[in-house]
């Protein structure tokens, strides 16, 4: 497969081509005056692409990306290898796109860090987990480690698996909690299929961890499963 063409380098102060300038400025004005909700997904994506592709009409490319991946969120979280398959999308544009995904995750994580306790704002926890994992193309297993006041000690990605399986070792999970002097944990993993419905294996794995952690004074507050179609809480579903 041939590599996608690289965008031309534009020196500082390079002026946008007049043909595109009017459309770009009108789109920027709508964003400034009415906010992101006034823009469609492809228009918001155009704004992201403007900096990386200053001499191109990026509307067709933005529409093609939405058509291929489905939504703005799915575009910015798409794996780089899949983005590279899109004709006309080079390294600079991909970097701008992935920067949006990284920013969303960092902002969501910041909301958790500012809370007095993780459990005081459950919606912030869900938002962070979805931003960090919901659109990943492989299963990931993450653990939030908490102290006795339910403050966040650490947030660690423990395992990355395949499209439908992540190996999880209960004793290793509990061992890491002991190393961090955590008294509670929140388990999180994603379903790349998009459907967050817990599987029998998800429930059994959670109970296995609880059977080891509980005698050691480590509580499992919840196991959250996220996907692009929503999230599920094993505790909320009364499965644990």
Please supply descriptive tags for the structure shown above.
240 residues, alpha+beta, Cytidine Deaminase, domain 2, 2 domains, 5-stranded mixed β-sheet, 45% helix, elongated
Topology:
Blueprint: H1 18-34, H2 41-50, H3 59-69, H4 72-76, H5 80-83, H6 91-114, H7 122-133, E1 140-146, E2 152-160, H8 170-179, E3 184-190, H9 200-213, E4 219-227, E5 230-233
Parallel strand pairs: 3-4
Antiparallel strand pairs: 1-2, 1-3, 4-5
Helix pairs in contact: 1-2, 2-3, 6-7, 8-9
Shape: elongated
Main β sheet profile: 5 strands, mixed
Structural class: alpha+beta
Number of helices: 9
Residues in β-strands, percent? 15-25%
The CATH homologous superfamily of the largest domain is termed Cytidine Deaminase, domain 2
- Residue runs with pLDDT of under 50 for 5 or more positions: 5-17
Overall pLDDT level: 87
Overall number of domains: 2
| Helix proportion | 40-55%
Q: Report the CATH architecture of the largest domain.
A: 3-Layer(aba) Sandwich
> What's the CATH C level of the largest domain?
Alpha Beta
Instruction: Output the CATH topology of the largest domain.
Output: Cytidine Deaminase, domain 2
- CA distance, first residue to last residue: 48 Å
Strands in their spatial order, largest beta sheet = 2-1-3-4-5
Radius of gyration: 21 Å
Q: SSE order, as H and E?
A: HHHHHHHEEHEHEE
| Strands, count | 5
